[in-house]
Amino acid sequence: QVQLVESGGGLVQAGGSLRLSCAASGRTSSIYGMGWFRQAPGKEREFVAAIRWSVGTAYYADSMKGRFTISKDNAKNTLYLQMNSLRPEDTAVYHCAANQNLRPLNVMTSYDYWGQGTQVTVSS
Q1: How far apart are CA 35 and CA 75, in angstroms?
Q2: How many whole angstroms separate alpha carbon 116 and alpha carbon 25?
Q3: 56-70 mean pLDDT
């Protein structure tokens, strides 16, 4: 089992920045990759970014490239998402997830464990 706890969400004005964190505990040695997904009200959960835990290869949704940066600290078992140039349409609950298999990291159903999420609200 892997437990995930997100933090760092909040209210920010358009153009601002936030850094989300996701602390992993439990069987972290079994993690293949971790990712961030978000879900806005009335919309489906969508892929934001992911990273392979051992080698650090990062993947991004096209709309996030250049604004969001995913990173990790293996020693702290923590995943990060640096979000810059935030827009009102980035408002959503952001969830981190952990993948213990070799399935594609940009696919929601590839993930085995999910955090509860952290709210990000961007005001115009």
Answers
A1: 18
A2: 14
A3: 94
Cβ pair 50, 35 in contact under 8 A = yes
| Contact status, residue 14 vs residue 87, Cβ threshold 8 Å | yes
CB atoms within 10 A of CB 100: 16
Q: Which two tokens stand for residue 97?
A: 């997830």
In this predicted model, what pLDDT tens digit does every residue of 78-113 receive, in sequence order?
A: 999 999 999 999 999 999 999 998 889 999 999 999
Distance between start and end Cα atoms, the chain: 40
The full DSSP string for 12-65 is: EETT--EEEEEEEEESGGG--EEEEEEE-TTS--EEEEEEETTT--EEE-GGGT
